[in-house]
Fold each of these.
Amino acid sequence: MEGDPTLRLRIFDLNCWAIRYLSKRRQERVRLIGDTLRREGFDLVLLQEVCSEQDYSDLKVKLAGCYPFSHYFRSGVIGSGLCVFSRFPILDTLLYQYSLNGYPYMLQHGDWFCGKSVGISVGVTAPLLSLSLQLHAEYCREKDAYLPHRLVQAWELAQFIRHTSKAADVVVLGGDLNMHPEDVGIRLLRGWTGLRDAFAEATRFEGCKNGCTLVPDNCFTDKSELLPFPLGIRIDYILYKAISSFTVKCEELKTTTGPALGTDIPFSDHEAVMATLHIQRQGQPVGATHGTADLALVDVVTEARTEVGVGLRAAQRQRYSSGRMAVLALLLLLLQAAAALGTLAGLGTEQPFPKLSFCLLAFLALGVLALATGLHLFHTMEVKMLHGTEDQMWMALRALQEHP
Amino acid sequence: MEGDPTLRLRIFDLNCWAIRYLSKRRQERVRLIGDTLRREGFDLVLLQEVCSEQDYSDLKVKLAGCYPFSHYFRSGVIGSGLCVFSRFPILDTLLYQYSLNGYPYMLQHGDWFCGKSVGISVGVTAPLLSLSLQLHAEYCREKDAYLPHRLVQAWELAQFIRHTSKAADVVVLGGDLNMHPEDVGIRLLRGWTGLRDAFAEATRFEGCKNGCTLVPDNCFTDKSELLPFPLGIRIDYILYKAISSFTVKCEELKTTTGPALGTDIPFSDHEAVMATLHIQRQGQPVGATHGTADLALVDVVTEARTEVGVGLRAAQRQRYSSGRMAVLALLLLLLQAAAALGTLAGLGTEQPFPKLSFCLLAFLALGVLALATGLHLFHTMEVKMLHGTEDQMWMALRALQEHP
């Protein structure tokens, strides 16, 4: 932005739901997304869940003309499928994987295998930091076992943004945060980083009511999940802030509303979010009034820390019970070894154990021992990370109270 | 540093080798370290391998008077044991865990369980970024299977420093890098971040010859490992750089040389490194001449990328063979299931399988299936991370060649 005092930046964000073997009509939809992106000519495109590298390569070939710069972030087993397409050069990239991301044994909730992360790309016409990301999904709002993990992710994301954005002029974040606008994680992320919500700030809005991005009208969404929310929910966001002597305003925000132009299917089970930001070089960035903002922030961090504490205690209980299970399995194995040795030494020959049951029991004990040890190690790491986050939040609270 | 144009910063760095049940005379040594730190009154203390939180708490209590600010970084199963003690306030902390860190099944090399990471603390008398860290150990220099992992760690560390240090005045890094000074990983880290080696820059030096920190004279070191290096090796470093309008000079560098003052034991199996940095506010930071530095950097990044590529191909082979093993185990299980169904249906009753061997075989197949699947998933993640790093290095090379 050297020389030119203003810039209009058009951003496209979409959770593409392009998981091989799992997502319906994947190839057709990826083709459709590619065609639309080529036709519309955005400046910056942030995509999630493009889990097949082939799909990314196809998009890259198709979009080479209008988005000459792109990057694909690899992580996890399945991959988080984060990618960025840009009309302006991407100078550098960085991937940050959250330290907690669900449980590997919850196979039905594949989050752990995705290796959820945030991809950051620096560049685009001046120090502009753009982030594409996805946080852990919420599977049951009433009894949300993953809330502590999602809060750790929101906290790590906020810390990551604070530490990496200091030399940027403008930060733009687009992604599927898997949280409702009033949830503690969103308030934590926004409060701790100063990011502004494009939906709340937009001068013009067009799209699904309340900016919802998971709506019952979409033919791919799970209708039963959305029963308590007849209008849908808003979990995909474009957030932004100006760091140095720039101001950013959101002129327009749009969401898609079901089937794409000229077809019968939507892009994905999520609606796309499109923002037009107006970036201008001038005085100080427009900030919130800090006195009250800090007080509210103390409340949010305290609330988040309480939830992380709840998760910590649950993880400690799981660590304890898996450890106990491992010890019991080990004792059973030792007992069996003693019995086998006894039989070999000629004791109890009048009443020998049935060999088959004996072996079955030994294998069962061995299996339980391996599984319980694995679980114990996993929950030990979970406890450490939750404890570490609790500590960091406490330090943040102290800093907020001492240097408001 | 507002107002005061110069600052003399005394830094202490040590790999404490304080792993519960494994390290010899641990408590005695931790006490000794604490006593010395209290007596000497450094400004900044960066410790590694303080794996027991109890040891950290004891140190914290002992050092509360002269180092009122401290932080302990939690990670992994055993923990990387990173901690920082500081005479000046620590405003913020951040933990970055490397995406690759050895293999969980290499139990004898416990690196995976440590969750190796870099702990960053911001604060200390003005934007000073201090990092405490440890990279994956080298177990066999001739056939170093972990070199690609260590290079990924060095690259991630360098990227992390580049992205987080932009608003800092001075960056200080202290840690056990597990690399010799001329190794490609060190050259990559130094070249890509511009960090300067305190040993090479120091005006005065006092300590083990060549600045070695793992020496045969230390009673805790493994003498056989050091046979090819009669003087020892230098793998612990203090690196630094000035970012904004500051200059940093290393006035003095010292290492310990065996037993601590008034005792018969050294602090650890590593020698401590102590630097006195002279920080001054003035003109531009003294940088290397950029033309030749960039050319050398291209060579280093190319060399590192080649090594990462070698690791990538090894990981792909391991992924393939573990996948094949899982498929074979699955086929065996299916065959057994078919045989069992056949027996149930009354076929082959004249020659029934011996039940015991049948069950043993089934459990064996099940065990192999579980293990091979786990390995396959692990190596899939490894492939993704190595591939991602290779990509990032390629992008860096392109940027270096296009905008030197």
Amino acid sequence: MNNRVSFSLLYTFFHCQLWMYGGLDSNVFLQYLAWVTYPVVLITFSAGFTQILAPQAVGSGIPEMKTILRGVVLKEYLTFKTFVAKVIGLTCALGSGMPLGKEGPFVHIASLCAALLSKFMSLFGGIYENESRNIEMLAAACAVGVGCCFAAPIGGVLFSIEVTSTFFAVRNYWRGFFAATFSAFIFRVLAVWNRDEETITALFKTRFRLDFPFDLQELPAFAVIGIASGFGGALFVYLNRLIVQFIRKQKAINRFLMKKRLLYPALVTLLVSTLTFPPGFGQFMAGKLTQKESLVTLLDNRTWAKQGIAEEFDYIGQSQAWKHPQVNVFVTLVLFIVMKFWMSALATTIPVPCGAFMPVFVIGAAFGRLVGESMAAWFPDGIHTDGTIYPIVPGGYAVVGAAALSGAVTHTVSTAVIVFELTGQISHILPVMIAVILANAVAQSLQPSLYDSIIRIKKLPYLPELGWGHHEYYNIRVEDIMVRDVRYITLNCTYRDLHNVLLTGHLKTLALVESAESMILLGSIERAQLQSLLSLQLGRPRRLEYIKERATAEKKRLSVVSNPSSDDGSHRASQEVRFQVRGHCRSRIDRMESHPFHLCLMGCNLRKIAPQTTERIAEWEEMQLDEQVNFNNCKIDPAPFQLVERTSLHKTHTIFSLLGLDHAYVTSIGRLIGVVSLKELRKAIEGSVTVKGVKVRPPLASFRDSGTSSSENEATELHKLWDRHKSMSLPREHTPSESDEKSQ
Amino acid sequence: MNNRVSFSLLYTFFHCQLWMYGGLDSNVFLQYLAWVTYPVVLITFSAGFTQILAPQAVGSGIPEMKTILRGVVLKEYLTFKTFVAKVIGLTCALGSGMPLGKEGPFVHIASLCAALLSKFMSLFGGIYENESRNIEMLAAACAVGVGCCFAAPIGGVLFSIEVTSTFFAVRNYWRGFFAATFSAFIFRVLAVWNRDEETITALFKTRFRLDFPFDLQELPAFAVIGIASGFGGALFVYLNRLIVQFIRKQKAINRFLMKKRLLYPALVTLLVSTLTFPPGFGQFMAGKLTQKESLVTLLDNRTWAKQGIAEEFDYIGQSQAWKHPQVNVFVTLVLFIVMKFWMSALATTIPVPCGAFMPVFVIGAAFGRLVGESMAAWFPDGIHTDGTIYPIVPGGYAVVGAAALSGAVTHTVSTAVIVFELTGQISHILPVMIAVILANAVAQSLQPSLYDSIIRIKKLPYLPELGWGHHEYYNIRVEDIMVRDVRYITLNCTYRDLHNVLLTGHLKTLALVESAESMILLGSIERAQLQSLLSLQLGRPRRLEYIKERATAEKKRLSVVSNPSSDDGSHRASQEVRFQVRGHCRSRIDRMESHPFHLCLMGCNLRKIAPQTTERIAEWEEMQLDEQVNFNNCKIDPAPFQLVERTSLHKTHTIFSLLGLDHAYVTSIGRLIGVVSLKELRKAIEGSVTVKGVKVRPPLASFRDSGTSSSENEATELHKLWDRHKSMSLPREHTPSESDEKSQ
């Protein structure tokens, strides 16, 4: 319901701006001031508010949701603060009239609602405490976000699946439909209650003729729209990334902008709104129209131009904005497309809650309209040859273009469904489908989707998709990409080993093997668990205990050896030592807690302490470190995911995506021989994707026969390993050198 | 393209029947004969042809595809023979005019095409040899099947996902769209080329008014259609299963039908076509119309009845069939619904290639029409209150009813999309969505889907879905359902152990553990691999070698001991022995091959052989059996899937579905403690699903705290196990009794 409120607030803003602008028609300068000030203030407020309250609310939110649904915990993105910042920031940003979208933020807002609802419900216990249930809630929420944004329940569900999931559980499908249908229903019922509509209809209802929507011979034109949109979509993603990277790289600019965080949004807004100022350049690109109005006029079912000349067509209402006394409709359309293109790419880099779907959708519609108008001008009586004249419907082209360009930017095909639901007409289904598929084919082979691009820019922990047509994924094996130098701990290791392992590695979990010789994988232990084990062994309570013991012993010794007068002195000395040691301990423990990976064990701050005591503490530490680790109170994951050397990259990727893994151990008949984490997988996939044309074969791949694998191959025949295993079979401890060599 | 051919053949059949029927209008009896003979002959031929060529072609094919996409290999369902049988059988079955559908068989046919294409392409090597690629091909093929059946690419993709997948890889999504769009395009382009249509339009194009498709106050009526359809759908599935089970259980009927396999189809066809005979009872239920014609008339945008009386509405063409001089349109509709309902449920049990979607769709449309006509009769001037009169559109109700009933029977929501694509109008999106969701909610809580019902009837190896709202899935753990008595082999086992294990168990794969004491899981070996190991050890070559050796030794002994004259005799005897033994060996090996689990080792057919030789062979066998197994040439899967005791049933189900597992081992810190196969999982799920209201808690569940699990809990704290493990840590062999106890 919050979405609804923000929605109506938004319209209030729009009307305000137009009213301000309209009321000042005597003076162009005042008009300009009113036209420009309004968006600048709103965007600056939005940026500032978001920055202060919750910087996580910036941007679309779909990349983050994709990462969260992938299984990565990004808790700060689902807090109440973020919710408030997103709703208010989005309302202001949309109210500014900048070319910004709302479908990404709506997805995020719906997910925030779901997360907060889950958190609230979990107070009552029961099913809501379950983590996988929360993921289901979030998936349904994503569908709601898109669904109520466009009043497109089906398209919403499909779009949200495409942009957020890698593998989708069909059992969650109806949940999404249920939620999205109700959200769309409420959204449209509000319009009826507000007396805007008589009954529930589509958001951007079109009125194309039903009996003959398009001719078969028009299909090539639709295909052209699809292919061009594919290139356009890839260009948009590229441009968007370029702008972000340019601003980040230019250190001078960056330093300046960092200081004045609100300057960048204000400048961009100023530039964009100056260019769209209706009496100025805006007159050549229908600058007066809001996004919604542009879309309504672009989807109009009448032809604007015939025979290349802008005729006096029956302009009603908003459509007049496209008409300019001096220039052609085609020029207006081209200018609109070009200007909006870079404006949208630029505007979506502003740090406010905003999406890019709607601007891209409008640009696509304009491009489709341009092609449609050209076709109408070229074939004034339509293409159909059999008697009846069916004129070309440029609005249909606009629908196709909108679906194709937005599909290309987001790498989805469900935009086709969204346009049907948005326009309330499905007559152009085949042209739309063909254009969307072609646009996707082109765009996917050139650039990642906008959301994946943002994921890369933001460096979110996400696994890239396998591109299609890259057959080498079936030929690359885990053994080519795995890290052979696995950090492990053994069942009978000492605390010193533990300490060394913790100092060197960076993985979140460590493998537990039976012994360094057998290397049989028993499970994995989280780093934090090991750290607590270690700090338990060397921590303050133990240390104090030891020092107390030492002090007592010292006291005894002194009391035996020295005279009564020195007794008091020795007591003082002992106390001093204790104090110093305690201070030393504390600083050390503090350091341990703040830098838990780095335990500086050998004296650095020991200068103040008497050399004897220091030595003793060091001695004690050494003793403690040489003890065998007691794993009793340690949580062990007894079945970490295991792969085999010959598992293909394709299969590995599938398993990682399916199960949301972070890493997997590579074993060979129970023996740990390597580890693969998301990092290696990402490197392997990107390594072979980014280098175009050249197959980057991993170094070991060439030693293998190049025939593709059947799944049977993956049940490895490990003669050699097996032989070794057999030879040392039960008393395996005898051949350490050989095993050590292997484990490296 | 084969689908196309069958399609046009089908129409030829229809026209034949109508022509025969029309040409004989002088004599009712001859008319009846013509009306009845035609379907009976076609159905009987179809049943016979399918039975002889490939009985796998019988039925829908969707349940089988669901099972195959789940990862189970059902090779016989994807052969060329099945393809031929399905295409020809389906053509005849549809041509008969019985209430049979084609969408299931189309899915199967498209999958057959894909499978055969893959097989053909794999001749050229490369990517097509890969198994997972084949699954992707099949998934796309399923989309094509539905897509070209209804010219509904989007609905086709979604429907096929819903009915065949549990987890869907989004990266396969565009493949489905691509394939389905082209199939739908070709399908509709053929209609244009045949001059049936001027351009590409929807298959059952409707012409409802766009400006005011329905009033908000009509929504309750749509909801009623949804709920009633839910009950109706569940009843249909139940009725269908009841008929199958009744015929199977009645032994007398069954024996009779088994003898005369073609009698059942013929009888059912006779019954159905007698009842639809237009001059007979058929006149009261529009028996003259084919399914397609019924649907076209039901989706008509004009009102048939007003104020409860069948007026002289403008009957054009086929719609006249619904008009009867004596009875009301309502009576005709009710009779149509009731009769078609049981007829369809009965007809789909005939052993011919056929689906149930289309008949159900038509019944749903008729039910919707009935409600719509009633509404139109009740509110002759529409419901809208504000001035303008918008009469009720009963055709819209028919669309809603069709989507709702077919959605209820198949447990899908994508039927909503299919109806939009089928009718070319999306104006009724909200009523359709609401009705479909309600119908699904009702049907899913009462009965499995039609396809799941068939899976159960056919006992296909499929994992049932987790019903929704069953929270106990999160509380049941693997330890409650796993089989603790795991069949395993050890690394140092003898052939005798191998033999014993093979004799007792039935699982396809066996666990390989380090030793019976340590129970550390090293991998799994397929049963077939072990059998070949065993037969290698005891097989004919070895045996012959041994006998040859024996014979040589015997000969030597004889030649030394006895006189020269007996030399020849001994040679003969030796040869005889060799022959006999060879015969004996062969029979034994044959038996081994046919009953590989049962090696009768001790003499049974040994009577003919000299007792001495028999003894020696037995002795040799004993010796061979006592040797240690050499696993060198054995394919070992070094990383079988492992679960942990505390993994929840919900998670286990998810993992099994995601990875298409058949079984998984349960380990505790590397030690094998149990195994879970599909069987146990199915039992656990069905056990708690079928018993309504009563939570069937597994026996061990009550010992556990009832709080729901967080995923952290699943990283088990196994203090006790761990202690034991530690105590026996490296020289583990010392405590066999304790371990044995645990491993049981």
